[in-house]
Amino acid sequence: VGLTSLLAAYSTSAETLIATRALLGISAATLMPSTLALISNMFHDPQERGRAIAVWASCFMAGTALGPVVGGALLEYFWWGSVFLLGVPIMVILLILAPILLPEYRDAHAGKVDLLSVALSLGAILPVIYGLKELAKYGWDPLAAGAIVAGLVVGALFVSRQRKLESPLLDLRLFSSASFSFALVVLLVSMVAMGGFYLFITGYFQMVEGLSPMEAGLWMVPSAIASIVSAQIAPTLVKRLPLGVVIGLGLGIGAVGYVLIAFVDPVGGLPLLVAGFIVVFFGSGPAGALGTNLVVSSAPPERGGSAAALSSISGDLGVALGIAALGSVGSAVYRSQVEVPDGLPAGAARATGDSLESTIVAAQQLSPELGGQALA
């Protein structure tokens, strides 16, 4: 993670940055399942493990709160690559302290990583995401539909291969537990909504309200605090109410937050938006903490690592699908409603009709009069 962060910070082209970000994503994706598997091995008592996972989820949300603030401050005072350098000293400290403070757990019967399964998993997910984005963005397209079908076919091949392997990349036996499958679905669906929501909320803060990156990050802090509070309360509530009831109440509260946000006006809507944001995150806290605990607890101890990995995958996949699907829907709605002013240069007119982000970039390159027309 530290090395790829360093490479990303000093990327000299968009292609290099995308490649290093992909490597950063691959390396960072190993951290969360590893820590979660470590917790499941360290805490065998169900109540202690539930509390530990709630703290783990709260630390994740604390990072979510601090990241935009620190990143925003770096962007205001330094160059864009500085946001990647932030992870370098953190990884150095982790490399020094982790071997000293953390116990080591290994599966003596762990098999080798099946590279073909890795390739098949990518071949299943990427075409589906691409197809969903294109269909939501432009409507019916045979190429996009074909990509989705191809991804599903490759996904079927992936599942077939996992059934045959002695040490599969994805242990399908875990899905025989109804509670395990239910928890994964809850995590996936909640992160689909959250991923697309985050995309719109950051755009509203900076492109509608005109906030700086650091100011936008500060407005996100209250919602993260709300999520931390609800995640800590959730294990106590489970002692008095059924697990499904607590998760359902949390999701219901989150739905109320989304309804509040639906009534936000383009002008002067920041207070209601932040209030809805807080309600959404307060409701999502129990689902994240209890859902993750349910995933880990439903798996046998020897499959704790696989269960932790699936929990992380469901969250990451949900965010990716949410950004791809809801982001494309938002772009399609924008295209259907935007009115391109007359008199704009051809390039600026195309940008104005494409997205709000490209409109702002194009307006900055025009005269004040034409730029104002493009943004009107």
Can you walk me through this structure?
The protein has 376 residues and is an all-alpha fold. It folds into 2 domains: 2-110 and 178-314, no CATH class; 346-375, no CATH class. It contains 16 helices and no strands. The chain has helices spanning 2-9, 14-28, 31-42, 46-77, 82-85, 87-101, 115-138, 142-164, 178-208, 213-238, 243-262, 270-298, 304-337, 346-352, 356-364, 368-375. Helix 9 runs antiparallel to helix 12. The longest helix is centred in the C-terminal third of the chain and has 34 residues, at 304-337. The mean pLDDT is 79.
Which stretches of 5+ consecutive residues score pLDDT under 50? Answer: none
Count of strand segments = 0
Question: Structural class of the secondary structure composition?
Answer: mainly alpha
* Mean pLDDT, all residues: 79
How helical, in percent, are the residues?
over 70%
Number of domains: 2
Q: Treating each run of at least 4 consecutive H or I residues as one helix, how many helices?
A: 16
For the terminal residues, how far apart are their CA atoms? 43 Å
Label the overall shape: globular
- N-to-C series of helices and strands: HHHHHHHHHHHHHHHH
How is the main sheet built? Answer: none
Compute the CA-based radius of gyration: 22 Å
